[in-house]
Write a structure and sequence with these properties.
Elements lengths: L1 H23 L2 H4 L10 E4 L3 E4 H7 L2 E6 L7 H13 L8 E6 L6 H10 L8 E5 L3 H8 L4 E3 L4 E3 L3 E5 L5 E6 L4 H11 L19 E4 L4 E4 L1 H27 L8
Parallel strand pairs: 3-4, 4-5
Antiparallel strand pairs: 1-2, 1-5, 3-8, 6-7, 8-9, 10-11
């Protein structure tokens, strides 16, 4: 019995370790979820200084972190976000805040950025800067790295969903498609959206494998490892019973 319990514990630990390894690749996207964002003072183009709380109390926010001198992902990131949101013309349940994390950016830079994307008159989009970018970055686990050789920041394209209580509901890293954006918008409006983690090479020992094509869960090797001690115990009992019966003396026949 003790051996069986130990084997079960080992199997469960292996399963949990495998799941933890599969999550590690996406840990940045899962970090700080349901934590409150830092209430930084924001300098908004055309509005002056407001607190972050004032912005998200009006409507939930989609927060995009960029800098105007970016020669990499920032422009395609904002362009894709604009294109995807343009398809949701009737959805006014949220606002978008494009915030610079570069201390060199000022209000003129952000105003020109809004004009570049023809969003300066769009009431759903805000462009701004903050003097408290370090505290804000820490609250969302975002740490761009300055490359002095390239004179650029090495950073992720990060879009964050913030509900009207100021809690981070979801993060998207990279240039993402419409479905991911739908889930993000649903999350800031406190609408439950079932999600799943796509299979990858690190999920060999997961307990269940989700197939996004069929929408079905299939048994994984991790579940087999959990059940293996019980199966081995049953087989062992059957073997012991068989061996005991073989060793029992046969009754002598009486003539």
């Amino acid at each position: 019995m003790l051996k069986n319990i130990i084997l079960n514990i080992i199997a469960i630990s292996l399963c949990n370790l495998a799941i933890a390894q599969s999550v590690s690749s996406d840990v940045k996207e899962e970090s700080n979820i349901y934590e409150q964002i830092y209430d930084a003072p924001i300098n908004v183009v055309g509005k002056g200084q407001v607190s972050f709380q004032e912005l998200y109390n009006q409507k939930p926010l989609l927060l995009a972190l960029v800098f105007t001198r970016c020669s990499g992902v920032c422009n395609p990131f904002l362009f894709q976000l604009k294109e995807n949101l343009a398809l949701k013309t009737n959805d006014k349940s949220f606002n978008v805040l494009v915030l610079s994390f570069d201390p060199r950016d000022n209000m003129t830079d952000m105003s020109l950025l809004a004009q570049r994307f023809e969003l300066e008159n769009n009431e759903q989009w805000f462009f701004g800067t903050t003097n408290s970018i370090e505290e804000l970055n820490q609250s969302i686990n975002f740490y761009p790295i300055w490359d002095s050789i390239k004179n650029q920041y090495d950073h992720d394209a990060l879009l964050i969903g913030i509900n009207n209580q100021g809690y981070i509901t979801k993060k998207l890293i990279g240039v993402r498609q419409g479905h991911d954006l739908d889930l993000l918008i649903a999350s800031v409006n406190n609408i439950f959206s079932p999600t799943y983690r796509l299979p990858n090479k690190n999920m060999l020992f997961s307990c269940f494998n989700y197939d996004p094509k069929t929408g079905e869960n299939k048994l994984g090797l991790g579940l087999l490892f959990i059940a293996l001690p019980a199966v081995l115990t049953v087989l062992l009992l059957i073997l012991i019973s068989y061996l005991v019966k073989r060793k029992e003396p046969k009754n002598k026949e009486i003539f």
